[in-house]
Amino acid sequence: MAEVAALVRMSGIGKRYGGVHACREIDFTLGAGEVHALLGENGAGKSTLMKILSGDVTDYDGRIELDGEPVTFAGPTDAQARGIAMIHQELDLVPGLSVADNIFLGRELRTPWRTVDRRRMEREARALLERSGVHLDPRRPVGELRVGEQQLVTIAKAISLDARVLIMDEPTSALTTTEVERLFVVIRELRRSGVGIVYISHRMEEIAQVADRATVLRNGQFVTSFDPRKLTTAEVVEAMVGRPVQTMFTTPETATGDELLRVENLAIKPRRPRPGRRDPDGISLSVRAGEIVGLAGLLGAGRTELLETLYGVAPGGARSGRIVLQGKEIQPRGPRHALSHGIGFVPEDRRASGLVLFHSILANTVVSSLPAYGRLGVIARRLERAASIRMADRLRLKFGRLQDDVGTLSGGNQQKVVFARMLLTEPKLLLLDEPTRGVDIGAKAEIYRLLGELAGQGIGVLLASSELPELVGVCDRVVVLRDGRDVASFSTADSGEGDLLAAAMGESAVFEEVGGPQ
Amino acid sequence: MTNAQDKPVAAERSVEVVGEPTAIAESSGGVVATLFRFQSVFGLLAVFVAAIIFSPRRDGAILFVSADNLANVVRAVSEIGIIAVGMTFVILIGGIDLSVGAVLGLAAVGSAVLMVESDWGLLPSVVLVLAVGLVFGALQGIATAMIGIQSFIVTLAGLQIARGLARIWSDGQGIAIAYGNGPHEAPDSFAILGERTFGGLVPIPVLIFAVVAVAAVMFLRVSAFSRHLYAVGGNEKAARLSGVPVVRVKVAVFAICGLLAALAGIVHAVQLNQGSPNDGQGYELDAIAAVVIGGTSLAGGRGSVAGTVAGALLLGVLNNILALNNIDSNIQLLIKGLVIVAAAALQRLRPTS
């Protein structure tokens, strides 16, 4: 670990929210041209520490030095003016504005007549995006983009600030392996030009690849600092969690039963084609009872669209092919219809489409299964509480009281609430879209354990994921999608991540457009 | 939100990060949270106390707290109150209903025309008028939920349509209601609604308001439908993906709001002994003000009918005490506006958990 001249030195940083210490006496340094990974479970204090550095949080203990000079920031704009930029985990983009408008938001380029210079903004946005290896039309509204594409836009935006310190809070959570590779190329380039980068991620293998140094926080305190190439994943996880964790990426082999779901040559001709959306274009696959089937594919391969079609929430269009559930053909008509047929769905973005964050854990848990707790439309509180607590115990939900807002829970526990809600509907088939995104490692392990348990009870699972280790470790079989078609199917017993990746990319090379305009 | 779960389980379930500091944070947060949660009730108390202090006195008696005056306060509040209960439902699902004042006018006209000009009996008249309100609301709900037009626009149009219908129905005239058994006289039983008091103290319109309010509070507390309603207001997409019948919820909520506006129109007709197509102008804004003062979020998913009732009473007490002191009506408007802003500002200070 070479000593680098400190660009940023934070010492004795403390921050309390009410009585809870989010950060306590943390020292943190970042050198110019250094990539410093910050690790820890959700709630360990990583985000708070970085919000302090980026001027988001201005009321804290301790001191910050920039180039050896003590500094205090009045707010994020002030910090940005001093060269500190942050890519937030929650993508702070304006959905109605175009990609270019978002990148230059608040510092729009002007013509000599002081009007907005659209053409120059679009040109520069395109160049910025291409530098991060993305081909996106800068005129497209951000709201139309998939989560991963939005993430790439925020990254481009942050790079455009020419910051000396760049903080990336889980920049890759929605990216596929190829895109992550491209991002790493950009990161290495920035590092060479002397930018200091703080890299927050839950993905251990990324940190080993890209970081020069890693610091682990736990419960708001510094635990250890190490060279990420020298420690094993198990050791790092142990430092984060504070106890040894058994191997995570395994679910017990379960005997699979009869065929539960069969999709035959499913294709949708959308009424109004939307750019960046990849509707099923001839997909066949099957899921047996007790089987966990993975859906692999690059961003824009059509995984989410397939799950949405099966759940009946995809935008309308002419459907061809067959969807057969337990031997009977069904026409998915919508969530109520799907749920009544025993199909449950855990959406990709739990904050936007999964939960009402400011409603209670209880209300969020029981909302799909309300008729079970009452008669004549009147709810028996005792029954819904009992059901809720039963699920919380089963999923090992960490919470204070059932009436607490679900938004107060960590990401992993929020996701467990979405699972609990679906399990209360007693599904036969679960459709999961990136169920462990933004979930800390402990909760991840518990979700995997749960999936194994569900399979053991004969529930079929269709799991779309961008994380190859997850697919290989958790699934019995993985179906690879490309351009809305199934292109390969692997048994995970005799194939690895490399096979999946190769199939997902197909002959279209690494720099092929992904999800771009057609 | 759907508040009040019982406490005992809470103690056993405190998992992880307990410790001293958290406990302190919770208790202090608890007090503050409670203050904010019942903000409108405390506001009402404050205004009530202020009203007593500033009330004019006659022979040493405080005029404001005289039985007659208090009855007047609640009587004046009852129409807006009934409308505001329906408005609370609509705002809870993240919508707005600008048509309620016009629907009130339509219902008042309808009551007068049916009973006076068409010589209908009390019951059929009331049932038909309520049905008109219900259907009118449901149609607005359908336009919002199924076609996807924003409720602000749908009900802005609804406002015009209801006013137009009221003018057509009454030939643009106010229709006075006389009572008796002869032709072109409304049944005496209708007058009872307006004149009689319950137990010699509570005017019948107030009783109707109270029944509506209590029913709404109970409904929001125990019904499965209310969970769906809050979920739709909190996050419509999440609600839909969870299997909540979003369209049905929206249509039902607008129908309820229309029904209650029609009920308020009947109460209005009987209190004024007339039905005029111009009745209820601007009532929608007073109802929205009551809902906002009551702490219901215009963004949807958060709020309560109890708060709205307190908000409506607060406005009523305020109006009354200003009138008792002969404050210029223009100044009254200023003060009302400031109170609304203050209530909304207080909500911004509410600690977010």
Features:
heterodimer; A: 518 residues; alpha/beta; Rossmann fold; six-stranded mixed beta sheet; 22 strands; globular; B: 353 residues; ABC transporter involved in vitamin B12 uptake, BtuC; two-stranded antiparallel ribbon; 6 strands; 3% strand; disordered N terminus
Notes on the structure:
The complex is a heterodimer of chains A (518) and B (353). Chain A is an alpha/beta fold. Chain A has 2 domains: 6-241, Rossmann fold (3-Layer(aba) Sandwich); 259-342 and 427-505, P-loop containing nucleotide triphosphate hydrolases (Rossmann fold), CATH 3.40.50. Chain A is built from 17 helices and 22 strands. In chain A, β14 (317-325) and β15 (328-329) form a beta hairpin. Chain A is globular and about 70 Å long. The model of chain A is unreliable at 507-518 (pLDDT under 50). In chain B, α3 (39-54) runs parallel beside α14. Chain B has a single domain, classed as ABC transporter involved in vitamin B12 uptake, BtuC, CATH 1.10.3470. Chain B has 15 helices and 6 strands. The model of chain B is unreliable at 1-29 (pLDDT under 50). Chain B is mainly alpha-helical. The longest helix of chain B has 27 residues, at 246-272. Chain B has helices at 8-13, 19-37, 39-54, 67-92, 100-117, 122-147, 151-170, 188-195, 204-222, 224-234, 236-241, 246-272, 283-293, 305-324, 329-349, and strands at 57-58, 61-62, 175-176, 197-198, 202-203, 274-275. In chain B, the strands form 3 sheets. In chain B, strands 1-2 form a two-stranded antiparallel sheet. A two-stranded antiparallel sheet of chain B has the order 3-6. In chain B, strands 4-5 form a two-stranded antiparallel ribbon. The chains are: A alpha/beta (518), B mainly alpha (353). At the A-B interface, α10, α11, α12, β18 and α13 of A face α1, α2, α10 and α11 of B.
CATH-level-4 superfamily name of the largest domain in chain A: P-loop containing nucleotide triphosphate hydrolases
Beta strand % of chain B = under 5%
Global mean pLDDT of chain B? 86
Number of self-contained structural domains of chain B: 1
- Trace the largest sheet of chain B across and list its strands: 1-2
Structural class of chain B: mainly alpha
Mean pLDDT of chain A: 85
Largest interface: A-B, 52 and 46 residues
The major beta sheet of chain A can be summarized as: 6 strands, mixed
